[in-house]
UniProtKB/TrEMBL annotation:
Catalytic activity, reaction form: DNA(n) + a 2'-deoxyribonucleoside 5'-triphosphate = DNA(n+1) + diphosphate
Species assigned in the record: Pseudomonas flexibilis
Record-given protein name: DNA-directed DNA polymerase
A Gene Ontology BP annotation from the UniProt entry: DNA replication
NCBIfam families: dnaq
Source taxonomy: Bacteria, Pseudomonadati, Pseudomonadota, Gammaproteobacteria, Pseudomonadales
Keyword presence, Heme: no
Amino acid sequence: MNSLATWFSRRSTASLTDSQRQRLDRLRDPAPLAEQPLLKQRFVVVDVETTGLNVSRDQVLSIGAVVIDQGGIPLGQQFERTLMREYRTPGPSVLIHGIAPSEIAAGDDPAEVLLDFMEFVGDSPLLAFHARFDQQMLTRAMKESLGYKFRHPFLDLAEMAPMLCPQMSKPQAGLDDWLELFGLQVQQRHNACADALVSAELALVLFNRAVRQQIENVGRLAERMRSWQRRQNAHSF
């Protein structure tokens, strides 16, 4: 670790309690994406609500997550927390997520929320719709609040869906488009936990399509997605 990274890590962990440091040390490393059958693998489906869309400046306000395990969604395994932030001037994003400044002021210590979230995740891979945004926001939040390097792999449902269903895809299809296509109902959009739950339902539809296409394990799905992404990038030039 270079001197700048060492300084940043020490600064980030300086405000942690002894208990928090011990929990940080016990966090599990991500498991490799290997031969585990898709319909047996435990996934954590995550959605974050933020102060805005700038991954270098904006902050995570809430985290919602649900579990996919053994080909189902155990509703007793859900995660939903709001982080305490200094957020006195609501921006345009509040019109989308509806999280009031008073809720954020009454939120929980970000370090506690992020530790709780990582204990909920364990060594499981993560899923999200437009996963790169969630991944970047969580990575920065964990670095700043915990001095923790977030290395868990993400699979992006926004890329998985058109790869597995090319005949149904349309340019720039969003989550609502895929939900409508498969007849999935969402109770509340732009709520982190509700979005994670409906994303998990979409993931199960896609996993069953993957198995019908002889993509039966997690490693093979990740490999196919990388190949698909390379082709898409090549066609964009």
